[in-house]
Every structure is written in C-alpha cells, then in structure tokens.
Give the backbone structure.
Amino acid sequence: MVGGRERPGEPAGSSTHPASVGSALADVLPNGGRICAPGETVRRLRPHWARLGITRLARQTGLDRLGIPVFAAIRPNALTLAVNQGKGTDDDAASASALMEAAEYAIAEQPDAPTFVAAPADLLAAGERVFEPVRQMRADLRWRTDAPIPWLTGRTLATGAAVFVPLEAARLDHTERAFGDLQRSSNGLASGNDEEEAILHAVCELIERDAMTLHAYRSPDRAAALRIDPGRFAHPAVRDLTDRIEAAGFCVDLHDLTTTIGVPVIQAVLRDARLPARRQLDLAGGIGCHPLASQAALRALTEAAQTRITNIAGARDDIDPAEYGELLRAGLAPDPAAGAASGAAPASLDVADGSPGALLAAVLARLAAAGVEEGIVARLGGAREGISVVKVFIPQLEDRPANPHWRPGPRWIAAMLSA
C-alpha cells in the first residue's frame, strides 16, 4: 500500500545487518529519539500484556527478503485493530514499536483517565473552553450543544490552559458509531515512555498527515521534482539503508513532502526491481516526519519495509481483499527515464539537544510561525503500564488520509492557490 498504514515508523536497521546509526545529535538519535533503550520498554510492558489484551508477539521479518525487523502484537478482542505492527534497528526496537502501538490502541479503546458528563452549552455558559470536533463529523450534521456527553480534561499545547475534549473524539472504537458519525482514528494518537515523548510523536504524525494531504494534489511533474538523493542527508545511515535495500533487489525513491511548516516530512517508495509495477501493491510506501531530516528518512524507509510485510502477511483488519487486485493508479508508474535522484534533503530544525522536550519545543515553534496555534492534548492513560498515551488535536492541519469526512481547510486552499 503506497503511503503505509496509520502509524509512524522507527529508525532503520536490523540485528544482522545494522545500519550505521550515530549516537550524537548528527541528524539521527539513539533509540530513535526515545528516552530509554527499547529493551527496557519491552520489559516494562511484559507484565501488562493480559490487561492490554495482548496474547502474543510475532516476528514477521522473515516474510520478506529485506531483513529489516518487523514484529506484530496480537490483541484478538480489540475494539479496533487486532494486529499492531512495529519495526526498528533490531528485534528489541521492533518489539517495542509493536507493543507500544498495541498498548496505545488498547488504552485509547478504554481510556484510563477521569471523565465527567455535561452539555457543551453548560460548559460554555460557565466560561469553560471546549474542543468542538466538527472536522471529524459529517458535513451535513451539526455539533449539538444541548445534549450531555462525556468529557476529558485536556490542555492547549501553547499555554497549558484547560480545554475540555469530548471523550468520543479521543476514544477508539470501531464497533459502534459516535455522535455526528464522528470519525475516530489513530491520527494524533501516540504513546511514549513519558508524556513529552508521546506528544512529540503525535504532533509529528499530524504534520505528516497534513503533508500527505497537500502532496496528493501536486502535479506528477512537481512530485517527481521532489526526489531526494539519499547521499545528501546529513547522516550516512540513510545512504547505508538505501544501499542495503537496493542490494536486496529493490528500487528506492525518497521524496521531500515538507510543507511551509518546515518540519521535515519524507516519503519512501519501494518496488521490486525484478518485476514490473502493475498493481498498487507492487509499490510499498512509508512516510516519516521528524525535526531531524535523517531521522524522518529512516522512519519513512522502515515504514515502507513494514508496508511490504503488512501486505504479504495480510493479517491487518483494515486490509480490503480488493486491494490485492487494484491496478496501479495513473501517475504512480515508475518513469524509466527519470534518472538518478539529485534533490537536496530538507533542512533539519535547529534544536538545543535531542531530548523529546527540546525537539517538541522546536516543532511547536515552527507550527506557531506558520500560523498553526490551536494544538490540544488529552491524556488517555498509561501510568499503570509505565508509559504515557495521549491524543493530540490540531484542527488547522489537513487530515484527508485519516478522515473520510475531510473537507478542504485554509491550508489546502492556500496550497492550491500557490501551486
């Protein structure tokens, strides 16, 4: 599937063919930017599998010849996806990635956070600030203020001021509908070893979806012009990984999807060099967003590798069997005359250090500079498991890939006018 499924990736590599990931703040971070080693995260979560509904952890790496570790955490009684995948530099990192995604889904299905019931009109009359999830609702349905609904207490990312968030806007449940045919997705849902780490991942995912929305409307010529030379990233791990993928018999394209926000967004597309690309699933895509461009590229590459295994395994609940026969859409066919990519990598953000707090501050500053200042975060839980799970909303960002109720917003309109 081009573009991957709804999760961000991890850095590249494997236990048998390690990528040259550096340990200094040279555009790639140790542990993929997480605050502790992935093995520690795995050990911390292991006692909580039963409560989270996780019954097993499957190593899927051998389903493909790339050798990039991919694991799947299985939750048979999930209210959403029963299979959550992860990838990373080695088996520990891939295991941690899969388990953290499974944990965040489980907690988002049944949030472990205080709630209360009130009508929006009553909260507004009391001078409280509320988040109205109108962009997640069908356009023909109105946001009702008279009906009592359950709420979470959130806060703004800019000032920390309290904002009340409808529980159903943050909760995941694919077994029943919410008010306004509300679209409940994992967009902006993230976990971390602490809250700053979780918020950083969530915000980057929202920026990523915004970039994907805008990129989808670029002309094929404009999209082709955004191909990046892997050797022009600041860290050699990107070139190392693309070389390794090509040595396994694949063609690799990296595209710069970075928007006016300025936080690097990279798309990776893989295809088997031995076979013609005729179907959609002959291409495997991944997207990565991170303040450091090399880290974003590694996330995109490993997500593309995971996408291949997702399609090979066929175990995810959100795969439509018809996808396997879908012909390649116009404009996506590889151009044999394109030649080698020569574009430059996007600039990384200037950050004081590699801590989640410093990286998050840099990202929020770029959002504010772009006029995007409405970020809200709600805690969903995770304290019992020793992690943090949050849901972040930034309604000014576009979200078409994750929202069937999407309609064009100001950023999309501005992008179309400047195209």
DSSP finds eleven helices and twelve strands in the chain. The first helix runs from residue 38 to 45. Confidence is low (pLDDT under 50) at residues 1-25. The first strand starts at residue 56 and ends at 59.
